[in-house]
Write a structure and sequence with these properties.
50% of the residues lie in helices and 18% in strands. Among the domains are: 123-224, Chitinase A, domain 3 (Roll); 228-327, Chitinase A, domain 3, CATH 3.10.50.40; 364-457, no CATH class; 506-599, Chitinase A, domain 3, CATH 3.10.50. The chain has 23 helices and 20 strands. The model is unreliable at 1-24 (pLDDT under 50). The protein is flat. Strands 14, 15, 16, 17 and 18 form a 5-stranded antiparallel sheet that branches. The protein has a 4-stranded antiparallel sheet with strand order 4-3-6-5, sandwiched between helices.
Length: 646
């Protein structure tokens, strides 16, 4: 969402408006009979108190004056119907959609998942698993068969051992028996991760289901997370002539021990083309990310940065590894934002969604028991699975099917939902199951939609933030239309304003100067002599600096008399100054000319002229708004506010 600094400032400083309910509030003032309540003013005043730099604006009367002007602008924006503009509505809707995500879910659930994930990241799990693969949308009958098959395999694994079962059943298509190695949180789908972390070392988990099918997990080991490492390696492929590769890797190792650079030898000899040109450097990795346990163990076995392993053999060839960086698990504070984002993308998000739906069923008093759906089952046919089904013309569907709050949902609404859902190419199943599954999705989508539609009425904080943005965006568009763009485009008005106020736009006294600075006083003494002899800064740099060392630096420019490079004690006259200790260095200044205070041309002053012209234009415009809209202050309510805000 595009927002420049000016817009952000407006939103933070002024736009904290929430139309409070009249009950329990006094009307502080009205703008053309539209009430503004004391609760709103107090909330805005307290919220912005620390942001206000000008102490005069902390005075309640002065702040009220600002607040009234703000309300006048909002009234004018609505009169001009800026809140009906397509661009305004589009940007507001984008913001609303983003903001609502922070209020729709239970933050306690998210916080719990973040804490759980962080705790799990402290431990690495080494596991084997057996999987009976089955489609997510498989029939209950097929699912039961798969579950029973897995139970049998689990029993065999307990009695015969994992290796025997693996050798007998693993086919890589429908049955899997695999060694997974070490992994941590987020490396597996959430249900799998739960089973692995909740199963004790040396035990098999109970059967569980994921989107891939039915699993059991055997936990071989658990250990502290070793963090991540960045290493470089030199690799020689394990070809037919094994002795040659082994002897060559040992020869390279001897050259390393003699002091030759690892990076140079990697570029010369490493046969890992993806890393050799970069001195053998690999991407940072953590446990379980590499397909080679041997390589991983060697890398994590190195203790100090710069340490080099002895030659070793992996599944891919012979290696020598050098440790470049090694980090443990970051602190909770550092990782929490990253974990929150991962959870939104991870299968854990289903936990958040399920908890939200559980709350919505209770909140709106919706039963999970299905109504009679036989009429929908009766109107379906096999054309549904070809996406060609249509609702029969004689299907009326006026009967009430569901009621969420004040929203009434009819049978026709669900029939329309079924018609649209056939686009999703659902797996062929019995119509009764299909209707029941779709009804669940239908109810849940309506619950979510109703919550979103009514969030502003149900959540006061959300309503406040949303109204702040709504009015702030409106105010920005108004100011851009009426003041900022209008002032920039009024070239005649700008030049006229400049002519009337040109004495306000001038250059202070300036100097055309060469400023030299150095850490060494002796160098500056030499520079001063050379400047007196009319040597240029380029000549002096050539004489005193070299490619390997800079002894003196120069600024050659027309400078304001208060420029940071000029010592405060500098006498503004032509010639070479004395040597100063300035800004923790030594400096000398050669003034070639002193330029007196001069008026700026319109072109030179245009930026300041536009700013001042806009300010004057806004003052005149506000005077017009005060005449256009009638403002009535409730003095009793104002006195009460002052008493409460003391």
């Amino acid at each position: 969402m595009k927002m420049n600094i000016l817009r952000a400032t407006l939103l933070v400083f002024l736009c904290s408006c929430f139309f409070a309910k009249a009950q329990g509030n006094s009307v502080l003032f009205t703008v053309d009979n539209v009430p503004v309540y004391t609760s709103e003013f107090k909330r805005v005043y307290n919220k912005n108190l620390d942001l206000v730099k000008d102490d005069s604006q902390k005075d309640i009367d002065n702040y009220l004056d600002l607040f009234v002007k703000y309300k006048l602008k909002i009234a004018e924006a609505k009169t001009l119907q800026l809140d009906k503009k397509t661009s305004y509505l589009r940007e507001f809707d984008n913001y609303k959609n983003q903001l609502s995500k922070n209020y729709l879910n239970d933050n306690k659930v998210t916080d719990r998942l973040i804490e759980e994930a962080y705790n799990r990241l402290q431990t690495e799990v080494d596991a084997n698993h057996i999987l009976v693969k089955i489609d997510q949308n498989a029939s209950p009958k097929d699912s039961l068969l798969a579950f029973k098959e897995l139970q049998k395999l689990r029993t065999r694994a307990i009695s015969e051992g994992f290796e025997a079962v693996k050798k007998d059943v693993h086919n890589g298509r429908t049955l899997f028996a695999e060694e997974l190695g070490y992994f941590t949180a987020f490396k597996m789908v959430y249900a799998f991760e739960n089973a692995a972390y909740n199963t004790k070392v040396g035990e098999w988990s109970a059967p569980f289901r994921t989107q891939f099918g039915f699993h059991v997990v055997f936990v071989k080991d658990k250990r502290d997370n070793r963090g991540d490492v960045t290493v470089a390696h030199i690799m020689l492929e394990d070809k037919a002539d094994q002795q040659d590769a082994e002897s060559r890797i040992n020869e390279i190792y001897k050259r390393l021990k003699q002091g030759e650079a690892f990076e140079a030898l990697a570029k010369q000899f490493s046969e890992d083309k993806s890393s050799s040109s970069n001195g053998g450097k690999l991407n940072t990795f953590s446990a379980g990310q590499l397909s080679s346990k041997v390589f991983e163990n060697q890398a994590f076995g190195l203790e100090s940065v710069g340490q080099v392993s002895k030659p070793f053999k992996s599944e891919f060839g012979y290696h020598i590894v050098k440790l470049l960086e090694k980090n443990g698990v970051k602190s909770f504070k550092e990782l929490a934002p990253e974990l929150k984002n991962k959870i939104k993308r991870d299968s854990r998000s289903k936990v958040i969604n399920d908890k939200r739906l559980e709350g919505l069923y209770k909140k709106y008093n919706i039963t999970t028991k299905h109504p009679d759906l036989q009429s929908f089952i009766a109107i379906l046919n096999d054309e549904f699975f070809r996406s060609n089904w249509t609702i029969p013309e004689d299907f009326i569907g006026e009967a009430l099917l569901l009621e969420i709050g004040n929203k009434k949902i009819t049978e026709k609404d669900f029939a329309d939902f079924l018609f649209k859902s056939q686009r999703r190419r659902q797996a062929k199943t019995e119509f009764e199951t299909l209707v029941e599954d779709n009804y669940n999705v239908f109810v849940e989508s309506n619950l979510k939609a109703y919550q979103e539609e009514n969030l502003e009425n149900e959540n006061e904080e959300y309503a406040q933030v949303l109204t702040e943005y709504r009015d702030g965006l409106l105010l920005f568009d108004l100011m851009e239309t009426e003041i900022w763009n209008a002032a920039k485009q009024d070239s005649i008005g700008l030049e006229g304003y400049y002519d009337l106020n040109k004495d306000n736009y001038f250059y202070e006294v300036r100097v055309d100067a060469i400023v030299a600075s150095s850490a060494k006083k002796s160098v500056i003494k030499t520079v001063a002599k050379l400047l007196k002899n009319n040597k240029t800064s380029e000549v002096i740099k050539t004489q005193l600096n070299s490619d390997s060392k800079i002894n003196v630096s120069f600024i050659t420019d027309t400078l304001d008399s208060n420029h940071q490079s000029l010592p405060k004690e500098l006498e503004l006259k032509t010639g070479v100054s004395k040597i100063f200790k300035h800004n923790d260095a030594f400096s000398v200044v050669k003034i070639k000319a002193v330029i007196p205070k001069t008026l700026k041309t319109f072109k030179e002053a245009k930026g300041h002229v536009i700013s001042d012209f806009q300010e004057q234009k806004e003052k005149d415009w506000l005077l017009g708004l005060e005449k256009k809209y009638k403002v009535i202050i409730n003095q009793d309510a104002l006195n009460q506010v002052k008493e409460e805000l003391k």
